[in-house]
UniProtKB/TrEMBL annotation:
Pfam families: Amidohydro_1
HAMAP family: MTA_SAH_deamin
Organism placement in taxonomy: Bacteria, Pseudomonadati, Pseudomonadota, Gammaproteobacteria, Chromatiales
Name recorded for this polypeptide: 5-methylthioadenosine/S-adenosylhomocysteine deaminase
Family: Belongs to the metallo-dependent hydrolases superfamily. MTA/SAH deaminase family. Belongs to the metallo-dependent hydrolases superfamily. ATZ/TRZ family.
Purpose of the protein: Catalyzes the deamination of 5-methylthioadenosine and S-adenosyl-L-homocysteine into 5-methylthioinosine and S-inosyl-L-homocysteine, respectively. Is also able to deaminate adenosine.
Reactions catalysed: S-adenosyl-L-homocysteine + H2O + H(+) = S-inosyl-L-homocysteine + NH4(+); S-methyl-5'-thioadenosine + H2O + H(+) = S-methyl-5'-thioinosine + NH4(+)
SUPFAM superfamilies tied to this protein: Composite domain of metallo-dependent hydrolases, Metallo-dependent hydrolases
Source organism: Allochromatium humboldtianum
Cofactor note text: Binds 1 zinc ion per subunit.
Keyword Plastid among UniProt keywords: no
Residues bound to Zn(2+): 68, 70, 217, 305
Gene3D superfamilies: Metal-dependent hydrolases, Urease, subunit C, domain 1
One GO MF term: metal ion binding
Length: 436
């Protein structure tokens, strides 16, 4: 058998339905896809590889999936800290966005975020931000994978003037990326409090027709739910259900306020939840009942949210926080074990984004979106269970090799498609402009 690439790793965590942990195996890649997973000796005998990468002491995992972020908000990292959500948004973030966000901001911010994420082993992200056509282009150029949000809000911004215009721009984006190998699109109405019934109903119809996900902030804080109940006598979840949005394409982000009946409804309809533990902690938004959701059979993925509320785009850190917080919130040390946190950051993210047949696990025929971490560091030794070191102890500097669709985008810790000094210099210029 001929392969373009053979990756020989000391451990492989497949995250496939059998959740295999393989030792001394190799993954063969052809045409950007996983062609074989074999014991290394057998691979050596049977596969003619153009390139072999030897990874002693490394664990190979599926690329991590950041299921909710606002990539270009990386340029607003550290601008306004230690505030609750609504003060942070209304008094700091939205005024700053109104003044500074344009296509150039989104290009430079997305590049900074893509660089940070690739270096942290994230190979795919789900975005919601202004000028999505710019994020899509920058991401595709960097060789990363993304689901780009076709954003909708009721109010005018520098990007669009009305819900109809946001939707028209979204449809144009969908058309532009219809057959792209790395870029997909999703509807991204910002939140129930910022998008009214008519555009939400139209989005429900269009999502069904186009077969794309609907990505929305939902039940982020108790205030959000109480304000809606006081104003309209209805919880936002019930309103979205009435408008036809609770279903298999729903990617509901945050969900810190959930009643048992809502959890049952999520499970029954096949909707996904994206848990953003660090953003929820930093904004003191509340706690998503992850253990209960998993128990009920709801698909729970992991996201960082934007770097302005996290303040990093580190999925390794997010797995650790999710595993620890899941135990704290449920009162059970067995809740959200390391293997589950890894599933949330990989296959569950893929499922939420409608990409389960393509990414999220190391399986035959799937895209070769792969990450190798070197565990030969004092804080990840000795090694009883690779998944334990990965989730509870590993850091981003241990991400050494990253491939997306079989293309190496990080080699020995350094990007192959982005120029670090240039990306940092543009970020510093924006920092001086905005802060000065
Ligand atoms: C319509 S573009 C996205 C919009 O969302 C804002 N945002 C960033 N983080 C959050 C959050 O945690 N909750 C609600 N809205 C958020 C961002 O600043 C953009 O304006
Ligand atoms: Zn968000």
């Amino acid at each position: 058998m001929h392969a373009e690439l053979l990756i020989h790793a000391e451990w492989i965590l497949t995250v496939d339905p059998e959740n295999r942990q393989l030792t001394d195996h190799a993954v063969a890649v052809a045409d950007g896809r996983i062609q074989a997973i074999l014991p290394y000796e057998e691979a050596r005998r049977t596969i003619q590889a153009e390139q072999t990468v030897e990874l002693p002491g490394h664990v190979l995992i599926p690329g991590l999936i950041n299921a909710h972020t606002h990539a270009s908000m990386s340029l607003l990292r550290g601008l306004a800290d230690d505030l609750p959500l609504m003060t942070w948004l209304h008094e700091h973030i939205w005024p700053t966005e109104g003044r500074w966000v344009d296509a150039g901001f989104v290009a430079d911010g997305t590049r900074l975020a893509v660089l940070e994420m690739l270096r942290g082993g994230v190979t795919c992200y789900n975005d919601m931000y202004f000028h999505p056509e710019v994020s899509a282009q920058v991401t595709a150029e960097s060789g990363m994978r993304a689901v780009i949000g076709m954003i909708v809000v009721d109010f005018p911004t520098g990007y669009a003037a009305s819900p109809d215009e946001y939707i028209a721009k979204g449809l144009a984006l969908h058309e532009r990326y219809r057959d792209h190998p790395l870029i997909r699109v999703a509807w991204a109405p910002h939140a129930p409090y910022s998008v009214s019934d008519a555009p939400l109903q139209r989005i429900a119809t269009l999502a069904f027709e186009l077969g794309v996900p609907v990505h929305i902030h939902l039940h982020e804080t108790r205030d959000e739910v109480e304000n809606a109940e006081n104003a309209h006598g209805e919880r936002p979840f019930a309103r979205l259900d009435r408008l036809g949005l609770i279903g298999p394409s729903l990617v509901s982000v945050h969900m810190t306020q959930l009643e048992d009946a809502e959890i049952a409804r999520l499970a029954e309809t096949g909707a996904s939840v994206v848990h953003c533990p660090e953003s929820n902690l930093k904004l003191a938004s509340g706690f998503c009942p992850v253990a209960k959701l998993l128990e009920a059979g709801v698909n729970v993925a992991l996201g960082t949210d934007g770097a302005a509320s996290n303040n990093d785009l580190n999925l390794l850190g997010e797995m650790r926080t999710a595993a620890l917080l899941g135990k704290g919130v449920s009162g059970s040390a067995s809740a959200v074990p390391a293997t589950e946190a890894l599933r949330m950051a990989t296959i569950n993210g893929a499922r939420a984004l409608g990409l389960e047949s393509e990414i999220g696990s190391i399986e035959l025929g799937k895209s070769a979106d792969l990450v190798a971490l070197d565990l030969r560091d004092p804080h990840t030794q000795p090694l009883y269970h690779p998944v334990s070191q990965l989730v509870y102890a590993a850091g981003r500097h241990q991400v050494r090799q990253v491939w997306v669709r079989g293309r190496q985008v990080i080699r020995d810790g350094a990007p192959t498609t982005l120029h670090v000094a240039e990306v940092l210099s543009e970020a510093q210029i924006w920092g001086a402009r905005i802060g000065g």
